[in-house]
Specification:
Blueprint (H helix, E strand, L loop, with lengths): L4 H15 L10 E5 L5 H11 L6 E4 L14 H11 L7 E4 L5 H14 L6 E5 L5 H11 L6 E5 L15 H21 L9 H12 L11
């Protein structure tokens, strides 16, 4: 029997919930917004800045696998345009437009903030909802200052409401499944710290892969 939409959604929601960290936010030395296909991430970063959570707002991202040909400029520049349209002053925005993966996002952003003499006791990182945990694990491995307090957040959207024209459900589930695989595999490669994966979450991963949601898995050489 073929899986129903309800079957797929039930499994995907298990993984979606696991990826969320539900960090409580407070004022921070910097807001670091990681570029992606989802401009709602830029909106979330702008909202936090406008609400007074930090005096420093940095957008990071060059051109990634999912954004190549989608934006007329780098992810960082495109996201900055979104923030400016929401009322963020252009002259307060820092841009890191060269990174092509999350590790580079983090390392290059650290260097840029240090160059601007921003204090870095605490940082709010803004990411897609289903990349919160992998972002946290990567930050803790790649960010040079282990004493920095890290808060990870994302657009406040439910699994049911998240898919849209730019982020269709099939793509979201494929990427979400691939990111879970990376949470398991990347620590041994030195990219991230370890994160425990409950048996129920890994079982949902295996079932979704068996259903064909394998388009974003690590490519084996």
């Amino acid at each position: 029997m073929s899986p129903t939409t309800r079957d797929v959604d039930k499994l995907a929601k298990i993984i979606w919930d696991y990826h969320h960290l539900n960090h409580a936010l407070h004022n921070a030395d910097a807001i670091l917004v990681l570029g992606s296909l989802d401009t709602r991430v830029a909106e979330r970063g702008a909202q936090l800045f406008l609400a007074g959570y930090s005096k420093h707002l940095l957008f990071s991202g060059g051109v990634g696998a999912l954004t190549k040909g989608k934006f007329p400029k780098s992810e960082a520049e495109h996201f900055a345009d979104v923030a400016i349209s929401m009322g963020v002053p252009k002259d307060v925005i820092l841009l890191e437009p060269d990174s092509t993966n999350t590790g580079e996002n983090i390392r290059l952003s650290y260097e840029l903030l240090r160059a601007h003499k921003a204090p870095l006791a605490s940082v709010i990182v803004v990411q897609k909802p289903y990349m919160e945990r992998r972002t946290f694990a990567t930050f803790r491995k790649q960010w040079p200052d282990a004493s920095t307090e890290l808060m990870v957040t994302s657009p406040q959207i439910s699994y049911q409401d998240y898919p849209n024209a730019a982020n269709p459900k099939d793509l979201v589930i494929n990427v979400m499944v691939g990111d879970l695989q990376r949470i398991k595999e990347y620590p041994r490669l030195g990219f991230q710290i370890e994160q425990p994966i409950p048996a129920e979450v890994w079982a949902a991963y295996e079932q979704l892969v068996a259903m064909g949601f394998d388009k974003h898995l690590i490519q084996r050489s």
